[in-house]
Amino acid sequence: MAPPAQSQRSPSPSQPSGKGEVSDLKMQLRQLAGSRAPGTDDTKRELFKKVISYMTIGIDVSSVFSEMVMCSATSDIVLKKMCYLYVGNYAKHNPDLALLTINFLQRDCKDEDPMIRGLALRSLCSLGVANLVEYLVGPLGNGLKDGNNYVRMVAAVGVLKLYHISASTCVDADFPALLKHLMLKDKDAQVVANCLTSLQEIWTLEASKSEEAARREKPCLASQIKEFNEWAQCIVLELVSKYVPSDSDEIFDIMNLLEDRLQHANGAVVLASIKVFLHMTLSMTDVHQQVYERIKAPLLTLLEMLTAVANESNTYEIGKVNSKNA
């Protein structure tokens, strides 16, 4: 009689078959903690990769938490990133580990390397643990005032994350006002764009205050629009389209600032600019008609581009079908 078929497949040599492999990882990480021998970081990387791999396929590796944190006391950015990914995964669901994680990340938020400060702050704000939001206030405040633009960019987005976790904590810490100040004063266009993005969502959620809060900033941002990337330009234009100018002179000033956006290579920027021009001139019949004449050329150019793309796509699909049927 043939032996019965096995009901389960044997574990792959690259995957842990039980707690033994995790215990072995824990021991190896503990041996490397604090070591400054040549090649230590490379060895740590390989072990960290295994931990992340096991975590990804659903194996519980929370038992190596302390060792992961101890081994991440390094200036190696790759190790830091893997460690932040690991601790963030387990801290969200374990209050005890969350507190340990916050202490660890708060320390890294003061690191001399701005990249590590920014990564740590981003991870700290991404934990989403409601009962520990008070620990975010200090690092976020420092991040908004940091001398490095990357850290300020991360902090600007972090304010919005804090708002979603606890709006009252965010408002009580006066972060929306700090974002407004940073948006108007910062020299880095991406920092300004991140501030604007966060404020726009906060203002939308605080609908009763949104127009009053945004009113003065829109023309100012319109004058800086060339400094922003295309995505940020669309956000600025969306805000400007909701702005109500004080008089016709202001309308013409804003349209003059945005005139060249009608010839922009990006279709979204062109359409957002057209929206501004049409909204701004609704109460000015003659000018509104002139705007219609003005936007014909940009719209036709955009339509030609879209038609060309569609034709190219159709040609490719037809060729693909023909090759299959050949």
Topology, please?
Blueprint: H1 19-32, H2 40-56, H3 65-71, H4 77-91, H5 95-108, H6 114-126, H7 134-144, H8 149-165, H9 167-172, H10 175-185, H11 189-205, H12 207-214, H13 217-223, H14 230-241, H15 248-258, H16 267-280, H17 285-325
Helix pairs in contact: 1-2, 1-3, 2-4, 4-5, 4-6, 5-6, 6-7, 6-8, 7-8, 8-11, 10-11, 11-12, 11-14, 13-14, 14-16, 16-17
Nutshell version of this structure?
The protein is mostly helical and 326 residues long. The protein has 17 helices and no strands.
Query: Assembly state here?
Result: single chain
Level of helix content? over 70%
What kind of sheet is the major sheet?
none
Radius of gyration equals 27 Å
Q: Low-confidence parts, pLDDT < 50 over ≥5 residues?
A: 1-16
Number of helices: 17
Global structural class: mainly alpha
Count every beta strand, where a strand is a DSSP E run of 2 or more residues. Answer: 0
- Tell me the fraction of residues in β-strands, as a range: under 5%
* Basic shape: elongated
